[in-house]
Amino acid sequence: MTAPTRDELRAHLVRTMIAGDVATPRQNNLLHYRRMAAGNPYYQFGLELKPSWTERDVLEMMVERCGVDPDPRHIYGDDTIDPDITLDTLEAMGDRIGLAARRGENVVIATGHPATLTPLYQAVARALEGAGCRLLTPAAGWTYEIETGYGGSEPRRIVYARPGVAMLEGDDLRTHHTHDPHPMEAMLRELASTGSESGAEVKPDIWPDLAIADHGWAGAAGQAGIDTVGFADCNDPALFAGAAEGKIDVVVPLDDGVSPHHYAPLTAYILDRAGLYLSD
Description:
Order of helices and strands: HEHHEHEHEEEEEHEEEHEHEH
Number of strands: 13
Number of helices: 9
Structural class: alpha/beta
C-alpha cells in the first residue's frame, strides 16, 4: 500500500470513525476517568501515577492530548478524538520507530487488542526486523490467572504472533483482550534475570530499547523506564496521563476497536514516516 498523504489519512480517520466522532460512549469515558483518578489499578495500566489527579484534571488532560469533548456537562452520548492530534502523534511514533530502525535497536511489541490491532503491529514488526532490529520474545508461555465476573478464574498465557507480537491466549486457544500489566512485567523480569554484574549493579544482557504497545503492556514498559510508543482509545486515560508525567513517549489517540483493515492506511503512514516499507 502506498502511504496516504496527511489530508488523505485525515479523511480516512474521520470516515472510518477511528478519529473525529467516535463510537466510544461518553459515559464510559467519564467512568474510566473517575476510576483512574481514584487510583483503581485496573485503570492505571501498571503505571505508578501521581496521586494528585482529579476527575476534572483527567478530563482536561484528555481534551488536550486526545481531543475529547471539553464540556463537563456532556455526560451521555458519543465522544470525539481530534484527528489532527492522531496525525501528529502518528508522525511522532513514526519518527521514533525510524530511529530504532537506524540504530538497530532491541524492540518489544505487544497488544491488548489482538482482534483489531495485530496486523498493524505485525507489519511494523516485519519492517523493523527487516531493518536489522532484534525483536524480543521473552516469557513465551508464561501463564497467570485472571478473575472472571462469576467468582471464578481463567488462565491466560503469553503467545507471540509472527514475527514477534506478544498477546494473551486462553485455554480456548483464542487470543484475548487485556488491560493487565502483568504479562509485560513477566517479560521484563525474564530479561532482567539474564543480567551480568557491572560493579555493584546487575545489568540485563538484553533489554528493550523501545516498546511499541497498548494498554498495560505499554504502561508496564513505560513504568520500567523503556522508551514507549503506543495507542490508546479515549476511554483509556492512563497512557495519556503517563505521557503527561513523562513516562510514555508517544500516545496515539484512536478508536482501537474498528475493523482491522481500516488501520492499514495508518500502518503505511507510520512506516513511510519511519523510512520503512511494508513487506509480505
